[in-house]
Amino acid sequence: MSVPIVELKNAAKEYVNGALRVTALRDVNLRIDPGEYAVIMGASGSGKSTLLNLLGCLDHLSAGDYLLGGESVANQTDDQLSEIRSTRIGFIFQSYNLIPQLNVLENIEVPLFYQGVPESEARVKAEALAERMGLSDRLRHKPMELSGGQQQRVAIARSLVCDPILMLADEPTGNLDSKTGEEILELIDELHGEGKTIVMVTHDDDIAHRAQRVIRFRDGTMISNDWHGAPKP
Amino acid sequence: MNSMRPERMVRLAVKNLSQYKLRAGLTMLGIIFGVCSVVAMLSVGEGANREIQEKIQKMGSQNILIKSVKVPNDENAGQSKRSFIAAYGLTYADAEELSRFVPNLVASTPIKRLRFDVQFKARRLQTDVVATVPWFLGVQSHRMMRGRFLTSADMEFGTPVCVIGTRLARILFAGYDPIGKTLQLDRDAYTVVGIVGDMAQGEVPGEDQLWLDGENQSVFIPLRTYLQKRGDLFTQWSEGGGTFEKIELYELILTIDKQENVVTAVDAVRRVLKKNHKKEDYSIIVPLELIRQARETRRLFNIVLGSIAAISLIVGGIGIMNIMLATVSERTREIGIRRALGARRRDIVLQFLMETLLLSISGGVIGLIFGALIPMAITAATGVKTVLTFSAFVLAFSVSVTVSVVFGIYPARRAAMMDPIEALRHE
After folding, report:
1. CB 3.0–4.6 Å: which of A220, B370, B399, B417 could bond A47 by disulfide?
2. Distance of CA B50 to CAs B42, B200, B206, B371, B375, Å?
3. CB contact under 8 A, A87 and B333
4. What are residue B404's DSSP bridge partners?
5. Per-residue model confidence (pLDDT) at position B418
6. Does the keyword Cell membrane apply (chain A) (predicted)?
7. The pairing of beta strand B161-165 with beta strand B188-198
8. Chains A, B: CB contacts under 8 A, how many?
9. CATH assignment of A34-60+78-227?
10. What's the confidence (pLDDT) of residue B425?
11. What is the helix (H) or strand (E) element at residue B165, kind and residue range?
C-alpha cells in the first residue's frame, strides 16, 4: 500500500478570540491517497476552509497530527512550512489571487522565485505551462487584461509550476460563468487523469459529482465520507 | 532553501515602486531635501571656516604676538589737564628677558608702530610707519615685490632707508618709480629701497584685493634709525595740554620653532611679563589659540548643523515609514499570496526593505546632486566661499540611507508578521 498524501489523525483546530474559544474542527481523521480527487462540502462555518488551510500548511493544528506525504508537519517552523508550501502544495483560489503588477509569466514563476530556481530555468517551465493552459498569446499581459477564465488558467499554471504532490482548490469556479467554469473543471479532471492528487472545496453538488469522493462537514465535524465513481485505489 | 539573488530583488522592487510613481517621487522628496540641505550647509560652513583659518594662518601659527596696551591710570585720573610723561607697554628689558627665558624661541621681532605724515614732492598723506628689524619680513605674510627689505647693515648704521607698501607706492608715487626716491617722514628724509606686499590681504595677488589696506600702505623703516632720530618719547597734543607717552616697544613678535612648542612658550611669556609688569599694559595674541578657538566654534557650529540635519533626516525617515505602512496595508493581499506560494517572512521583509532602500538611495543621490549645485550657485551669486568636502557627501548620504532603512524595518516587519490566511482574505 502506498504512502498516503494526506493523513490527519484526530486533528483539531481551536481559535482563541479574546475570552472566547471557537472550535473550528474537532477530531478529524482523514486519509487521502495519491491520485485521489476529493471534494469537501459543507455550509459556511462548517470548517471546510479551516481544513483547507491546514492541508495547505497555512495554519497549525491545535491537536492531533498531520502527515503530508508521510512526514509530520504538525510541529514545523514557519520557515519550514513556507518551504513545504512552495515545493509540495499547489493552491488554486476562487478569486485567482494573481499579483496585479506581474505579467502572466512572472505570476507563474512566483513559487520558483522563492525556491531560488535560476531565472532561465523558471522561464522555460513557466512558458511550457502557459502554453499548455492556452495562454501563449497572453504571456506579457497583466492579470487585469485577462478574462476570469484566463486568470484562473494562469493560477492553475502557477500551482503546477513546482510539481506539487497535493493540489488544493478553493471553489475555483465560484467567480466564473458556467461555460468557463466547465472548462476549468475539465482542466482539473485532466490533471486528475494525469495522476495529480486534488482536494477541492465546493458547495455545488454538480461539481461534487465529478470527484471520486465527497467529504461533508458540519459544525467542525466530518459527517460523511463517500466514495463513488471509480473505486478507491 | 536558497535565498533570492540580490539583482532579482532589486528588479522586483523597481517593478513594485514603478506602480506608484507619484507616491515614490513624493516620498523621495523628503530625503532629497534632507541630503541636499545637509550638503549645502556643510559646504557653506566649511567655506567660512577655511577663510578664517587662512587669515589666522597668515598671522603665523608659530608666532606669539605681544602688544602694548594703554591702561587708564587711576592715580593720574584727576590730573588730566596737566602734562606728564606716561610710560607703559613693553620694554627693551622685557624683550631681552623674553629672549632668554622663552624656550624654543627662534626669533624675536620688535616693532614700533607710529603714525606720521609722509610727503613726496607735493603729495602728502598720513599713514602707518612700522619701525622694525630685517627679519620682520619672514615672520608674517609679507613678500618683496621689488627692491630689497631692510638689512642688518641698515640696523647697524641706522641708515635712513625705507620700504613701502604696494598701495602707498601707487598713491604717493603715482607716475614715478619709487625706488631711489626720497620720502619725507615728518621732518626726516628716507630713501625708498623696496616695495613690499602684504599677502594676507587677499587670496590672489590681483590688484583690488592686494590694495585693500593695512600694511600695504605702511612705511617700513629700520628701528635703529628711528631711535637715533626720535628716541622713545612720543608727543601727543590734546585739548588743554600735551601728554608725553613713552612706549619702548609697540609690538613684539616671538617666533617659536614648532607649533607643538607654542603652548609652553606662551606660558613662559605670561610668567615673564607678569613678573615685570604691575599692570597688564600688554596683550598676548596667539594665532594658534585663535585657530583652536576657530575650531571650537566650528565644532559648535557643526553640532547645531548636525542637529538640524538630523531632524530633517528623521522627518524624511518618518515620511518613508508612513508611505511604506500605507503601501504594506494596500498590498496585504499580495503579501498573503506570496506567503501562500512559499515566501518566508524573511523574503517579505527583504522585499519591502529593498523598496525602502531603493527609494532612499535614489533620493540620496538626487539630493547629493542638488547639494553640490546649490553651494556653487551661492558662490556664483554672492561670492561667499563654499567648500564641498567628500566627507559631507558620505555623511549626508550614509545617514539618510541608514535612517530610511531603520524607519523601513517596522513596516517591513509588519508585512512579514501578517497571518497569511487573514492576508489572503483581505479585500
Report:
1. A220
2. 12, 14, 20, 19, 15
3. no
4. none
5. 92
6. no
7. parallel
8. 74
9. 3.40.50.300
10. 87
11. strand B161-165
